[in-house]
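Quick start: read one record
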Amino acid sequence: MANAMHLMPELQGEELIYIQAIVEKMDEEQARNFIGVYRARRKNPQEILIFSLIGLLGIAGIQRFVLNQVGMGILFFLTAGLCYIGTIIDIINYQKMSFEYNQKIADEVRLGMRI
Protein backbone atom coordinates (compact mmCIF):
# COMPACT_ATOMS: atom_id res chain seq x y z
CA MET A 1 0.00 0.00 0.00
CA ALA A 2 1.58 3.24 -1.20
CA ASN A 3 1.38 6.57 0.59
CA ALA A 4 0.75 9.63 -1.59
CA MET A 5 2.12 11.98 1.07
CA HIS A 6 5.56 10.36 0.86
CA LEU A 7 5.56 10.15 -2.93
CA MET A 8 4.30 13.69 -3.56
CA PRO A 9 4.71 15.91 -0.48
CA GLU A 10 3.44 19.03 -2.27
CA LEU A 11 -0.14 17.71 -2.29
CA GLN A 12 -2.62 19.32 0.08
CA GLY A 13 -6.26 19.14 1.09
CA GLU A 14 -8.77 17.58 -1.28
CA GLU A 15 -6.13 16.72 -3.86
CA LEU A 16 -4.11 14.73 -1.31
CA ILE A 17 -7.21 12.79 -0.23
CA TYR A 18 -8.15 12.07 -3.86
CA ILE A 19 -4.67 10.92 -4.89
CA GLN A 20 -4.28 8.85 -1.71
CA ALA A 21 -7.52 7.01 -2.56
CA ILE A 22 -6.07 6.18 -5.98
CA VAL A 23 -2.58 5.08 -4.93
CA GLU A 24 -3.57 3.09 -1.85
CA LYS A 25 -4.79 0.30 -4.15
CA MET A 26 -1.47 0.18 -6.00
CA ASP A 27 1.80 -1.50 -5.16
CA GLU A 28 4.86 0.70 -4.66
CA GLU A 29 6.09 0.45 -8.27
CA GLN A 30 2.69 1.27 -9.78
CA ALA A 31 2.27 4.19 -7.38
CA ARG A 32 5.68 5.62 -8.33
CA ASN A 33 4.83 5.35 -12.04
CA PHE A 34 1.43 6.95 -11.48
CA ILE A 35 2.87 9.82 -9.42
CA GLY A 36 5.61 10.43 -11.99
CA VAL A 37 3.12 10.86 -14.83
CA TYR A 38 0.60 12.73 -12.69
CA ARG A 39 3.19 15.17 -11.38
CA ALA A 40 4.28 16.03 -14.94
CA ARG A 41 0.71 16.76 -16.09
CA ARG A 42 -0.93 18.42 -13.06
CA LYS A 43 -1.31 22.16 -12.59
CA ASN A 44 -0.06 23.88 -9.48
CA PRO A 45 -2.82 26.03 -7.90
CA GLN A 46 -0.34 28.88 -7.38
CA GLU A 47 0.30 29.00 -11.14
CA ILE A 48 -3.44 29.28 -11.79
CA LEU A 49 -3.64 32.16 -9.29
CA ILE A 50 -0.76 33.95 -11.05
CA PHE A 51 -2.37 33.45 -14.47
CA SER A 52 -5.68 34.76 -13.09
CA LEU A 53 -3.94 37.88 -11.78
CA ILE A 54 -2.28 38.35 -15.16
CA GLY A 55 -5.75 38.05 -16.66
CA LEU A 56 -6.98 40.83 -14.39
CA LEU A 57 -4.15 43.12 -15.42
CA GLY A 58 -3.87 42.37 -19.13
CA ILE A 59 -4.53 39.13 -21.00
CA ALA A 60 -7.96 38.03 -19.84
CA GLY A 61 -8.68 34.29 -19.94
CA ILE A 62 -5.11 33.00 -19.87
CA GLN A 63 -5.95 30.88 -16.80
CA ARG A 64 -8.74 29.19 -18.77
CA PHE A 65 -6.40 28.38 -21.66
CA VAL A 66 -3.90 26.87 -19.20
CA LEU A 67 -6.67 24.67 -17.77
CA ASN A 68 -7.57 23.45 -21.29
CA GLN A 69 -10.87 25.37 -21.30
CA VAL A 70 -10.31 26.92 -24.73
CA GLY A 71 -13.91 28.04 -25.28
CA MET A 72 -14.05 29.86 -21.95
CA GLY A 73 -10.61 31.29 -22.62
CA ILE A 74 -11.78 32.82 -25.90
CA LEU A 75 -14.93 34.13 -24.22
CA PHE A 76 -12.90 35.70 -21.41
CA PHE A 77 -10.44 37.17 -23.91
CA LEU A 78 -13.15 38.75 -26.07
CA THR A 79 -15.17 40.12 -23.12
CA ALA A 80 -12.26 41.32 -20.96
CA GLY A 81 -12.80 38.53 -18.48
CA LEU A 82 -16.59 38.97 -18.66
CA CYS A 83 -16.10 42.60 -17.66
CA TYR A 84 -13.53 41.59 -15.01
CA ILE A 85 -16.21 39.84 -12.92
CA GLY A 86 -15.34 36.38 -14.26
CA THR A 87 -11.65 36.96 -13.69
CA ILE A 88 -12.26 38.07 -10.09
CA ILE A 89 -14.37 34.95 -9.54
CA ASP A 90 -11.51 32.85 -10.97
CA ILE A 91 -9.07 34.53 -8.55
CA ILE A 92 -11.33 33.53 -5.67
CA ASN A 93 -11.89 29.97 -6.99
CA TYR A 94 -8.38 29.18 -8.28
CA GLN A 95 -7.92 26.22 -5.91
CA LYS A 96 -11.22 24.63 -6.90
CA MET A 97 -10.46 25.12 -10.60
CA SER A 98 -7.02 23.54 -10.15
CA PHE A 99 -8.43 20.63 -8.17
CA GLU A 100 -11.07 19.89 -10.82
CA TYR A 101 -8.44 19.94 -13.56
CA ASN A 102 -6.02 17.79 -11.55
CA GLN A 103 -8.81 15.35 -10.66
CA LYS A 104 -9.53 14.88 -14.37
CA ILE A 105 -5.83 14.39 -15.10
CA ALA A 106 -5.49 11.82 -12.29
CA ASP A 107 -8.41 9.84 -13.72
CA GLU A 108 -6.90 9.97 -17.22
CA VAL A 109 -3.51 8.78 -15.93
CA ARG A 110 -5.15 6.01 -13.87
CA LEU A 111 -7.18 4.83 -16.87
CA GLY A 112 -4.13 5.08 -19.11
CA MET A 113 -2.25 2.79 -16.73
CA ARG A 114 -5.33 0.48 -16.63
CA ILE A 115 -5.50 0.47 -12.85
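The radius of gyration is 16 Å.
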